[in-house]
Amino acid sequence: MKPAFYVTTPIYYVNDVPHIGHAYTTLAADVLARYKRLKGFDVFFLTGTDEHGQKVEKAANAAGETPLELADRVMKRFQALWDKLNISNTDFIRTTQERHKKGVATLFERVLEKGDIYLGEYEDWYCTPCETFWTETQLIDFKCPDCNRPTEKLKEESYFFRMSKYQDQLLAYIEANPDFIQPKSRKNEILSFIKEGLRDLSVSRTTFQWGIPVPGNDKHVVYVWFDALANYITALGYPDESGNFGKFWPADVQLIGKDILRFHAVYWPTFLMAAELPIPKRLFAHGWWTVEGQKMSKSLQNVVEPNMLIDKYGADAVRYFLLREVPFGLDGDFSHTALIHRINSDLANDLGNLLNRSTAMLGKYFEGVLPEPGAETALDAAYREKTSAMVQQVDTLLEDLAFSKTLQAIWEVISAGNKYIDETAPWTLAKDPAQKERLGTVMYYMLESQRIVYFLLSAFMPKTSEKGLGYLGWTAAPDDQGLAWGGLKAGTVITKAEALFPRIDEKGE
Fold it and tell me: Is there a domain that residue 91 lies in?
């Protein structure tokens, strides 16, 4: 039986336009999912949309449509972008789906029956854009400390979750599971937040209707975070243990932006503790993207629209750039100049040029038919060993979600390939008939190393990988067995590769 692996993205709010930040998280999850499938795992990869709450209700009213009409319209934008970016998600959850509502109602009832949800009255300062209550001491000039927008004082009857009850249990869990919150800097931030003291959390609203009714009291709707966070289990069929929920929960990795870490690292595990459900194995909060050094904002009109990037540069170039440019977990800066530089240098010069050179030589010297390799020299062995060591390195680095370092390790083998060609000088060997076997060995080594590179690139650049493997005469889907040296067989017909990534004129930007 295949081992199970479950990876999630946050569900994206339908009051938002898909931007580079959404693409970044989803792409990272996609690379993990594709790589784990390559390694023989049974993978469940979830993404989706968060469709309830006051913001959606207000936006829909302003647009003269129902909240569900707005959600239906915006949700399609996310799905279309994921198709365009070649995202291989298993499922797409919407919080307006019956399966989700049913799961949320069950979760709420379970925690209520345990006595960890109680009815009370709430009065505090509310930020509608963040859907968060703040105490007066947390406000900055009566504005929200997160988004700096005005707050309003609200008083309403509310159900409360006894989050304070789980403070010590949560601290103990984080201390006992040092990899639960990553990167480390984020973990320290959460620990200090918890140690300041957890307050009970309001988990229902009466001031608007657009949400899941509280079981047994439909004057109230379930607070958006209790509703939204439950998506990770409702998509698996919670509370039914017999299917995907029993198989895939707890999640192996939950990827999020650093702005929603507190909800995932404090609210979510305490909800699960109260419901006596397992806690995810790992939360990873990545950084934010700025644009040409400035924070992305609608008012600055500098929001990077992923659809336009894909139309202009191609999905695989965008996929490569986002994960190569910045170490995952740190903030990154987007610029067209940096993207074009990566395309020209890494993709056209290094990756594409190596395939183009080596397949052209095979066509010239062996009429495109792969020869049997002869005796291995120390130079060949070093190249083979570097390629095989890189396979192991990639496994370790991806386990740490070090996407940038993973690509760096793969590119070191690509550079070694270009160097290997220069050092073995096939054009010189080809002039001497006595060196025919040696020439065949060189050709085999340079093409076999690239086959392994394209196997691994199937996680990062699926279309490019497929193209590259096609030129190398490999038609089957990449799998774990094929990561071992010796997959290409003598007699394979290999085609001269076209330019995988044509160079872009940097001045034309």
Answer: no
Q: Is residue 481 part of a domain?
A: yes
Residues 222-262 have pLDDT tens digits of: 988 999 999 999 999 999 999 999 999 999 999 999 999 99
Q: Which residues contact 289 (CB under 8 A, 6 or more apart)?
A: 20, 21, 24, 296, 304, 331, 332, 333, 334
Distance CA 418, CA 348 (A): 13
Which residue is it, tokens 């996609």? 30
Range of the domain at 426: 336-508
Torsion angle (degrees, nearest 10) of CA 251, 252, 257, 261: 70
Positive or negative: CA dihedral 434, 379, 404, 292: negative
Average pLDDT along the chain: 94
Segment 160-186, tens digit of pLDDT:
999 999 999 999 999 999 999 999 999
Give CA–CA dist 240/505, Å, rounded: 56
Could you tell me how far CA 217 lies from the centroid of its own chain?
38
Q: Chain centroid to CA 162: how far? A: 32
Residue 297's pLDDT is what?
A: 60
pLDDT of residue 137: 82
Pairing of strands 132-134, 117-127: antiparallel
Sheet strand arrangement including 332-334: 294-295, 289-291, 332-334
Answer whether 192's CB lies under 8 Å from 36's CB: no
Task: Give me 84's structure tokens.
Answer: 């365009």
**Domain contains 377:** yes
d(CA 333, CA 20): 11
Q: What CATH number is attached to the domain comprising 481?
A: 1.10.730.10
Q: What total of structural domains would you count in the chain?
A: 1
Residue 488 belongs to some domain of the structure: yes
Nearest Cα neighbor of 21 from 324, 227, 295 is 295
329 three-class SS? coil
Asked if residue 371 lies in contact with residue 330, where contact means CB atoms within 8 angstroms, the answer is: no
For 80, residues 6+ apart whose C-beta sits below 8 A from its C-beta are none
Cα 180 to Cα 91: distance, rounded to the nearest angstrom: 24
